[in-house]
Design brief:
The protein has helices at 2-29, 76-82, 128-134, 144-147, 216-222, 286-289, 341-344, 364-370; strands at residues 34-39, 41-42, 48-54, 61-65, 72-75, 92-95, 98-101, 104-112, 115-125, 140-142, 151-155, 160-164, 176-178, 181-182, 186-193, 197-204, 212-215, 232-238, 241-255, 258-268, 282-284, 292-297, 302-307, 318-319, 322-327, 330-336, 352-356, 377-384, 387-394, 396-397. It has 399 residues and is of the alpha+beta class. It has three domains: 34-164, Cathepsin D, subunit A, domain 1 (Beta Barrel); 176-307, Cathepsin D, subunit A, domain 1; 318-397, Roll (Pdz3 Domain). Strand 18 (232-238) and strand 19 form a beta hairpin. The protein is globular.
C-alpha cells in the first residue's frame, strides 16, 4: 500500500513538473505583446534621445537610450531642480575621464509614452558637459535597469522605438542574431583586420557617438594598427570631463556577416580601464549600430541586427580640430587642437560662433552637421572681444 501511495505521489510530482514546463513553453511560444510605440530624436553620432517623466512630476525629460549603461541615471542638476530625494552610496561609476562615487534616488517610476516602469533606482550623475556638447538638455540615461525587463526595437528608418513584453520574438528575415554575454552591458565578438586579423570582444554601446573605441594598451599589445599610420589629435567628452584622443582608420571591421572598410576609430589612454582590457578590446558605438534596425532582447540575451537605409552611409572622416559647446544661448569654441584646420583658420578658444556660411540658426547640431562636409571651405563668423571676425575653415579628412 505504501509503495502505491509513493508511486502516486511521484506521478503527481512529475505531472506537476511537466505541466509547469509545458505552461512555460506555451507562454514563451506566444508572440510578445507590443506595449507601446513612440518616436525618438537622433543627435550627431546616432545618439538616441527619448522623452520621459519621473513619478508624477509634470516635466518632460530627455534621456539617452544607452546599452553601455549598467543601470539607469538622472542628472544632478535635474534632481536638484525637481527636488527628488537621494541618498549617498559607496557605488563608484567609471568613465573615460574619471571615477566618482554617486548618490541614488530609490524606488521611482519612469513614465514613457504608453508605459510606466516602476521600482527603479536611479544613480545621480553630472551631465552638464553632455548637454553642452549636444546642445540639448540631457536629464538622464536609460540603460540595463529598463532594458532587462522588455524587448526593445529601435527603427532608425522610421525613428520609432517599440517596447514589447518578454517572449519568443520573431525577428525579421535577412538579419543577424547576436548572442552577446550580458552582465549589465552586452559584449559581442568582432573581427579587426589591418596588419593582421584578430578576434576580440567588445561592449555594444548605443550611448557612444562613434564607430569604434580602442585603448592604447589594446592597440599596442595586439599590433593591429601599424605604428606608422597617421593619427589626428582630437578631444571627446564623457563621464569625468574631456579626454584627449587620437583618430585614425582601420582597414576592415567585421561584425557577424557585415564587413566595413576604412572605418574611423578613436584610440585613447584608458587609465580607468573603461574598456575592460585585456578581457575586451573596446566598444562598438552607435555611429556604426545606427546602420541597422536593432532588436534589443536582454531577457533572452539576444540582439538582432537588420541593415537599414543608412547601412551604406559614408563614415565621418572629417577633421577640423574644433570643439563646440553650448553655453546658455551661445555656441562657444571650447577647444582648438594645435596645428589643426581650426588653428590654421585663426579661430580661438572662447570665440562665440555667430554663423557658418549663410546659416545663422545658432543650432549646434546643424553646425556640427555642416562641419562634417569633408573637403569643404566654410566661412565662419565669430564674435571675439565684442567684435565680429570672419575666417575660412578648411574641413580636412583623416583618410
Amino acid at each position: 500500500m505504501k509503495k502505491f501511495v509513493i508511486r502516486i505521489c511521484l506521478l503527481s510530482c512529475c505531472y506537476g513538473f511537466f505541466t509547469s514546463v509545458l505552461a512555460k513553453t506555451v507562454v514563451e511560444a506566444i508572440a510578445p505583446r507590443l506595449i507601446t510605440r513612440f518616436p525618438f530624436n537622433q543627435l550627431t553620432g546616432g545618439i538616441i534621445i527619448i522623452k520621459a517623466c519621473i513619478d508624477d512630476y509634470p516635466d518632460s525629460l530627455n534621456f539617452i537610450l544607452d546599452t553601455g549603461s549598467g543601470g539607469i541615471s538622472l542628472d544632478s542638476a535635474t534632481v536638484k531642480y525637481m527636488g527628488i530625494p537621494n541618498e549617498t552610496s559607496d557605488r563608484v561609476i567609471r568613465g573615460i575621464a574619471g571615477m566618482r562615487k554617486v548618490n541614488f534616488a530609490y524606488n521611482h517610476d519612469l513614465k514613457l509614452p504608453g508605459l510606466s516602469v516602476d521600482s527603479l533606482n536611479f544613480h545621480i550623475n553630472d551631465y552638464d558637459i553632455l548637454s553642452g556638447v549636444y546642445g540639448v538638455r540631457i536629464d538622464g540615461i536609460i540603460g540595463y535597469s529598463f532594458l532587462r525587463r522588455y524587448i526593445v526595437r529601435v527603427d532608425y528608418d522610421k525613428m520609432n522605438l517599440e517596447v514589447f513584453e518578454p517572449g519568443m520574438y520573431k525577428y525579421p528575415k535577412g538579419g543577424y542574431l547576436m548572442k552577446p554575454t550580458i552582465a549589465g552591458i552586452p559584449v559581442e565578438q568582432a573581427q579587426l583586420s589591418d596588419e593582421r586579423d584578430i578576434l576580440s570582444r567588445f561592449y555594444i554601446d548605443t550611448g557612444a557617438g562613434l564607430c569604434l573605441l580602442l585603448s592604447e594598451a589594446y592597440c599596442r599589445d595586439s599590433a593591429i594598427i601599424p605604428a606608422t599610420r597617421k593619427r589626428f589629435n582630437t578631444v571627446t567628452e564623457g563621464l569625468g570631463g574631456r579626454k584627449e584622443m587620437t583618430m585614425t582608420v582601420l582597414k576592415k571591421f567585421k561584425l557577424g556577416p557585415y564587413k566595413f572598410r576604412k572605418m574611423p576609430v578613436y584610440i585613447f589612454e584608458d587609465e580607468f580601464n573603461v574598456t575592460s582590457y585585456p578581457h575586451l578590446g573596446g566598444l562598438i558605438g552607435n555611429d556604426l549600430l545606427r546602420r541597422f534596425n536593432i532588436v534589443i532582447n536582454y531577457p533572452h540575451s539576444e540582439v538582432h541586427l537588420n541593415p537599414n537605409t543608412h547601412f551604406r552611409d559614408l563614415f565621418d572622416y572629417t577633421y577640423t580640430g574644433l570643439g563646440l559647446y553650448t553655453l546658455g544661448d551661445k555656441i562657444v569654441i571650447y577647444d582648438i587642437i594645435k596645428d589643426s584646420p581650426a588653428d590654421q583658420a585663426g579661430l580661438k578658444i572662447g570665440d562665440i560662433v555667430v554663423g557658418i556660411d549663410n546659416n545663422l540658426s545658432n543650432n549646434i547640431q546643424v553646425y556640427k552637421a555642416m562641419l562634417q562636409s569633408t573637403g569643404s571651405r566654410l566661412r565662419m563668423i565669430v564674435k571675439r572681444d565684442g567684435e565680429l571676425v570672419e575666417t575660412k575653415l578648411n574641413v580636412k579628412s583623416i583618410l
